[in-house]
């Protein structure tokens, strides 16, 4: 235990010391953020595996050893990853590709992690750092083992700043202004004084804060630190061939959970659920006077703009952009007629997009 942790343990949790605790928490979070985000030269700690991101999204497999991560990769992609009954069979990151609905999803097999992974034991630190780069985490669990495994993994991911299945808390900061405080909802888990104390700890005396949901002190620190990653997670219980129907039924009813048996197959439902969680937007491109190319959509993250579409076609496109035309999709106000849009326009699933360019006055597709 470090000095700050010790002081926190000594400090009893009651109203009188809550402010002090908040300050200590902020201090500890700052130290750990420094420890976990070292400058790139200072060694491998906190750095993920050097695997190029490819395809439209990245899904990372996180779990204890021998839960069946490599078996899953081998069964759902064309990549083989060694499978064995002994622990730590996989020693590095192994990428495979799942092709689904016209999208290419990178599935990343990773070494098993153990308790303490985030504190730098073994390759664990590298694994949890890689998890930070994922668009979706598949937390793989052994259905025959105790529920404790899930909580332990959540602690490890939490320790590197990953927040699972959580939206970024709705807090807005404005520095170098008057120091106003505004909460649009009643705060029941924290209060202005605690938040002021934390801000003072960061020497942020002149800082406007606007809070728009009933946050906790931890939520506030997360947003203040700013390096947190809010990543969706599916809890995947494997090896259901080895448990009773009643046990399986109970697991399957939990939120964000899928039960599978890699051995028995039928992983289609898992892939459907992954797809739904990734929430990708598919956009079709169209040449002037031609039908849209429905065979080759561009897949983008939700919230993507016309600029992202341009970059998905060719990197020179955005620089020569005059305007875009959008048809049919849910974002087009004038469907079935085209809507004239700018680079910053957000596209929706199933939109058809055409670009008009400055130099060529022509149309591009992939
Ligand atoms: N009963 C059963 N066994 C399985 C299932 N899936 C995988 N296994 C077995 O579990 C063992 C471990 O599988 P791996 O795929 O190597 O597990 P891993 O999570 O990649 O393990 P590490 O790389 O060591 O972390 C192997 O003996 C697999 O055959 C399943 O659905 N049911
Ligand atoms: K194994
Ligand atoms: Mg493996």
What are its keywords?
3 domains, Rossmann fold, 366 residues, alpha/beta, binds guanosine-5'-triphosphate, single chain, binds potassium ion, 10 helices, binds magnesium ion, six-stranded mixed sheet, Ubiquitin-like (UB roll)
Written description of the protein model:
- By secondary structure, the protein is α/β, with parallel strands linked by helices.
- It folds into 3 domains: 3-36 and 169-225, no CATH class; 42-159 and 233-278, Rossmann fold (3-Layer(aba) Sandwich), CATH 3.40.50; 281-357, Ubiquitin-like (UB roll) (Roll), CATH 3.10.20.
- Helix content is 28%, strand content 22%.
- It is built from 10 helices and 16 strands.
- It has helices spanning 3-10, 15-36, 69-76, 124-131, 148-159, 192-201, 217-225, 245-252, 268-278, 306-313; strands spanning 57-63, 94-100, 103-109, 136-142, 162-164, 171-175, 181-183, 207-211, 229-231, 233-238, 257-259, 281-285, 298-300, 321-327, 339-341, 352-357.
- A 6-stranded mixed sheet has the order 2-3-1-4-10-11, with helices on both faces.
- Strand 10, helix 8 (245-252) and strand 11 (257-259) form a beta-alpha-beta unit.
- Helix 2 packs across helix 6.
- The model is unreliable at 36-45 (pLDDT under 50).
- The protein binds guanosine-5'-triphosphate, potassium ion and magnesium ion (MG).
- One of its GO terms (molecular function) is GTPase activity.
- This is P-loop containing nucleoside triphosphate hydrolase protein.
- Keywords: GTP-binding, Hydrolase, Nucleotide-binding.
- Residues 57-279 form the OBG-type G domain.
